[in-house]
Amino acid sequence: MIQAGILVYPDVEELDFVGPFEALYAANAVEPGSISVMTIAFQDGPIKAANGLRFLPDGPADSCPPLDVLVLPGGPGRRIAVKDKRVTSFVRERYEQVRFIGTVCTGAFLAAEAGILKGKAATTHHKFFDELDSHEGVKVTAKKVVQDGRVLTAGGVSSGIDLSLCLLSLLFSPDFAREAAEYIEFPFRPDTFFEV
User: Measuring CA to CA, how many Å separate 47 from each of 12, 18, 126, 128, 155?
Assistant: First the structure.
């Protein structure tokens, strides 16, 4: 079974983490028991997201099980999260262990601060291209989903769904991802997927 974790924090953008949660979990509609998806955080108790949604993460990040995939969503709270050494250390350490790391929208800055985007092509929300470009060694690419090695970045709030379908394509197969996309009635758009 594939184990996916989504790192959440206060003021995370709702669709940035709920979209990937739903799209990744759709793998179970194609093949029951094929993936487990959990939300993890460094905060205790409920988290208030950017637009007011309150939710309870599945567990603490510092004691989460081994992961195959780590997803880093964005949102206004990322400006504080990138300054948290626990977050950047966690992302850096898990990068060495996971098969893939995926970022959604401004979640790219969590990866950039952890140093894993250096020398890599990456994308984010189009309004933040210049900010991402200011990180040393990051090659900003204006595509929906960009894969550079084991790192996938996605641009824009709804792009987490595209990112997740690309991850399912890599973890299972393009046909598998297409079936998952059909289940959630979302177009599987491999043409928006840019591999370096």
Answer: 9, 14, 27, 25, 24
The residue ranges of DSSP E strands in the chain, in sequence order, are 2-7, 35-41, 47-48, 54-55, 59-60, 69-72, 100-104, 121-122, 139-140, 145-148, 151-154, 193-195
Nearest C-alpha neighbor of 166 from the set 178, 183, 182, 156:
178
Residue 52: per-residue pLDDT: 96
pLDDT along the chain (196 residues), means of 10: 97 97 98 98 95 96 95 97 96 97 98 96 96 94 94 94 96 96 90 67
Predicted confidence at residue 196, as pLDDT, reads: 57
Domains of the chain: 2-195 (3.40.50.880)
Phi, psi at 186, each rounded to 5° = -130, 135
